[in-house]
Each structure stands twice: as C-alpha cells, then as structure tokens.
Amino acid sequence: MKHTNSLLNLKTLAKRYARANRIPQHHALDLVAVELKFSHWPALMQASKDDWQVTPEDLAVTEVFLQKTLPNFHVQHEDGEAIKSRFEGIEPVEEGKIGGHSYKMMETLGDVYLTGEGWSIHVSEAPHAPPRVEIAKQSNSSNPINDSDFLQDALQIAQTRSEQIRARIASDWPRRSTKPDAEGKVRHPLGHGLSDKWFCLHCDALITGQQIADSLWHCPACHASPLDIFETAFWLSDDDEQPESIQTSNIGKNIEPKIEVVDTRFKLELNEKNITLLIRSALLEDATNTSERLGALLAAISVDEENDVSIVFDEDLWPEGKDPIQALAVADLLGIEIDQALTCMTAPFAWPGLGEYTSSTHEYTKMLLDAYANQGTVRNSG
Asked: What count of other Cβ atoms lies within 10 Å of the Cβ of residue 187?
C-alpha cells in the first residue's frame, strides 16, 4: 500500500468516526494520532514527512480503537454495487415457465430471487420477512405478474426454494441453536453464548430463545441477520430506553407480499469507481505532454463519503501549481470538490523530465531507450 494512500485511509477512518459522534474532524484526527503514540495529528503528519510510515498494523490498531470507543461504530468497506447489477455473475439454479412465461431463479447469501420479463420476486432468508415483488414501471398491462394466479404460482416456487435453503442452513448449525432446551435456552450459531433471552443490535428488541430459533436467528421485528443478535444489549446504557419483548405471531404463517412498482430506467451511479474514472479521464485531457499524462495515470485518487475527491500527484510528473482545469470542470458538473496534493512517488522510469519534451508516447519511448543505452544499460524484458 502506498504511503499516501495509508494516510488517506487514516483520515477516512477519523472522518467517519467524527460524523458518527458529531464531533469536529480535527478532534477525531487527534484521537487517532494519540492512539498511534503521537501528541496530536500535526505531529503525525510531520513524522510522515520524515521517516515514519503508516503500516497495516497501524490501520488495524486504529480500526479496533474506534470500534471499542463507540460500540456501534463499524469500519465500512463498501461495495457500492447498484441494485440493477445484483444478479451479474450469478448462475440461475433453475429456469422454467409459468403459464408460458419464462423465469429464472437465483440464490445469493441465503436469499432467493425469481425474475421474469418486467418483474422479480425476492424471498429473504429470514422466515418472517414478507416477500418483495417488484414490477417494472415501464412494463405494459400484459405483464403476467399482474395476474393473481400467476403471482401465487411464482411465490410458491420461490418460497419452496427458500424453505430448502433454510433447512440446509439449520442442518449446518448445532442442534441447540434451533431447538431450545427445557429452560428455553438456545445457543447462538456463531458462538455468541447460550441464553433464553436475546437482543437485536438494530432495533433493541428483546427476543425469547424460542422466537429466535423459530426465526432462524433473524430478528423477528426488523429482519436483522444473526450477526446482529447478542446475548446482552451491551450498547445500551442505564439511561437508554430498555428493550421490550416482541410479538411474532406471523412466523410459520403465510405472509402477504410487499408489491412495489419500480423505475427500471438506467441511472447514473455516482459511486467511487465511476467518479474516479471520470476524474482520471479529465486529468488525461489536462495533460499537455507525456510526463503529465503519466502523472494523470499514476495520480492517487480517493473519494470520500460525500463524493468529494482527493488527488495526490507525483511531483516529478505533474508540475507544481498546475490546476487540472478539465478535472475541476467535471467536479463542478458533479457538484463535488477536489483537494490536490503533491508527493514524491517512485516514477516508473529514470529521467521523468524527458516526457516534458514530447506528447508522443512513441517518441518518448525512443528517448528512454536512447538514454538507457547511453548509460550502457541492457534492456530488461522481464
């Protein structure tokens, strides 16, 4: 990991912590610096300009520290994938027809998706969660999902597959995780203890051992996964409102599906990947010679949670004081801000200044070969 990227990761962790705790960002930066044995953040930055570098161990220590300081703080490693691409790369486990209309059925993370032309059904791994039926807004009246008999047949197919998945999951768990003992105690399938009372991190629900076993360790109130079910509500203080028992009369019974009409038109996803792609493309337009083009290709670009961009250029490849006009214009269109910085990286070739005399990659390559040859250097093709 590059040194500049490591510093940016530290700043990102501190920024998320500051937002979660509603404190100034510089306070969060100082907390991170103190945890890494510096008096404050400016001292850490000064050390980074000398010999000190952020290590993977430093990042791990920072993550653990932030999680301990705020129990419900989680370091986010976001995927950023759009809903429309959720089936990419997933092979259907079954294909068939209902009344002459084709469908495909997929499984992912314990959930079942049944899809057809202009419609889809999602059955969650959680037994108490209602099936979700999505109907494309752009579909016409001939969409078969509008027929109640077709809908019931499709739901039956998806729910049958979901029951098979739940049975497979339960068979992999300890028996005591799905069958309470005489005192109503059950064992968490992930090893979080043995108890007759359980608590949901998401909604603070108090759940009995029988209820949590019947719901396959998903919260019956908010559908949270087993990862969010704990033996004690350690995140609550004495001053917080205490959890209340919940009613779960719908478990094991037919649940009415939630039907939504959705807009399936293409949408511009302003995620980190796409913003980085647009900004780097604009930087290439800003480049006027080969060195600057290499600088644009090698620039470290990061995007924060507000989609604001940080660009770190190699000072040997990008001129100090040169504003990336096209990149700034793209950022203005997207409604985001750009922060620029220079650092000394490792240029891919010796004499990085050679590229300032040409905009032709062919000519630049010839200049490189001649320069290396003049030094008596044998070309390394490995």
From this structure: 21
CA 312 vs CA 10, 46, 47, 143, 338: distances in Å: 15, 17, 18, 51, 11
Q: Are 134 and 262 in contact (CB under 8 A)?
A: yes
Tell me the three state secondary structure of residue 298: helix
Whether 42 contacts 60, CB under 8 Å:
no
Rg (CA), the chain: 28
108, 88 contact by CB (below 8 A): no
Residue 23 makes CB contacts below 8 A (sequence gap 6+) with none
Beta-strand runs (E) in 274-350: 300-303, 309-314, 338-343
Backbone angles phi, psi at 152, to 5 degrees: -65, -40
Over its length of 382 residues, how does the chain's per-residue pLDDT go in tens digits?
A: 455 667 788 887 887 666 555 466 777 788 888 888 888 888 888 888 787 888 888 888 888 777 655 433 444 443 333 333 445 556 677 889 998 889 999 888 889 999 888 889 999 999 989 999 988 887 767 788 888 899 999 999 999 899 888 888 887 888 788 888 999 999 999 877 899 999 998 888 999 999 999 899 999 988 888 988 999 988 888 788 888 888 765 554 568 899 888 877 777 888 999 999 999 999 999 999 999 999 999 999 999 988 999 999 999 999 988 999 999 999 999 999 999 988 887 788 888 889 899 999 999 999 989 888 888 776 665 5
Measured CA to CA, the distance from residue 205 to residue 376 in angstroms comes to 74
**Helix, strand, coil: what percent of the chain each, to 5?**
40, 15, 45
Strand 338-343 vs strand 309-314: parallel, antiparallel, or unpaired?
parallel
Q: Enter the pTM of the model.
A: 0.51
